[in-house]
Design brief:
By secondary structure, the chain is an alpha/beta fold. It has a domain of about 90 residues.
């Protein structure tokens, strides 16, 4: 799906290389290679991949459309045109926010709350990059480097992830036991700019780092969404029935995530909907009918 993503390890790296090779070796569609929307011109890029689903993203000022290489050529081109049309409309309506392209960044003196645990970030220049956590204080030492901000961000994410890891895994297993009783191979946290979460075919669950700073109701929604993919890979009626059984107001939570998710953790809290949108940072997803379930 996608709220669905990531399958870590060497096999994932190998898979990415294969996907990239496929994308480079396949011919592009006979569709415009750029579009002008208002005063802005966006490059249009088409990729063929080994993935099961087709998707459209706004990335680095370009509309990137990825289509499974195993689909028939006529279907690939039809879906590509459809996704491009919807992408253009989304940009025109202001639904694709440039903030969504940014990875999480941190600064000295920042105060954060992740899954109820508070952190204060302290940064100072030193001879090398290193991080340590004392109580709730994350101390970062950094050196001059062209990718200084990226390295600092990576260190802070690592420290927060280490502190939260057991708490998050406990929550995933609790929800799984309550609603699915599915075998879970692995649980990972990723700083993704494309998806809120994922469930691989071997039932490895990955969750977006930003979710740690959101209201519990939203984190639970994404977890439930991904756990439901252990039963049904697609987003058909049976999949959504499982999600609704666990979270009756999942549509409200999905809409909240779509509207507010990109704010976190930089721009503060927004109240989540009360109980009574899986929206991924990827605006559009096209997938085959739900036939692949387990």
């Amino acid at each position: 799906m996608i709220l669905g993503l990531f399958s870590p390890g060497s096999k994932q790296s190998e898979k990415k290389q294969k996907n990239k090779a496929v994308a480079q070796s396949e011919p592009c569609f006979s569709i415009a290679d750029s579009v002008t929307i208002g005063k802005e011109t966006y490059a249009v890029r088409f990729e063929h991949s080994r993935n099961r689903n087709a998707s459209a993203r706004l990335r680095d000022g370009a509309i990137t459309i990825s289509i499974p290489s195993r689909w028939p050529k006529s279907e690939r081109e039809r879906v590509a045109r459809n996704l491009l049309s919807r992408s253009i409309k989304s940009i025109e309506l202001g639904k694709w926010n440039p903030e969504q392209e940014k990875r999480v960044s941190f600064h000295d003196g920042q105060h954060l709350t992740a899954m109820g645990q508070e952190f204060d970030i302290s940064m100072k220049e030193g001879k090398r990059f290193r991080a340590k956590t004392k109580m709730n204080r994350i101390e970062i030492s950094f050196a001059d480097h062209p990718k200084k901000d990226e390295k600092i961000s990576s260190l802070v994410r690592r420290e927060i992830t280490k502190a939260i890891d057991s708490h998050l895994k406990k929550r995933v297993h609790e929800l799984n036991e309550q609603h699915f009783q599915a075998p879970i191979r692995k649980i990972a946290i990723r700083d993704s700019i494309s998806r809120w979460g994922s469930c691989s075919r071997d039932s490895s669950i990955s969750l977006n780092f930003r979710l740690l700073f959101m209201p519990d109701e939203i984190l639970d929604y994404v977890i439930i969404h991904e756990l439901a993919h252990t039963r049904y890979r697609g987003h058909g009626p049976r999949f959504w029935a499982l999600v609704e059984r666990a979270i009756p107001n999942h549509k409200e939570r999905r809409a909240w995530l779509k509207k507010n998710g990109w704010r976190y953790p930089e721009k503060g809290a927004v109240k989540a909907p009360e109980q009574e949108t899986q929206e991924t940072l990827i605006e559009f997803l096209h997938e085959p009918d739900e036939t692949d379930s387990y």
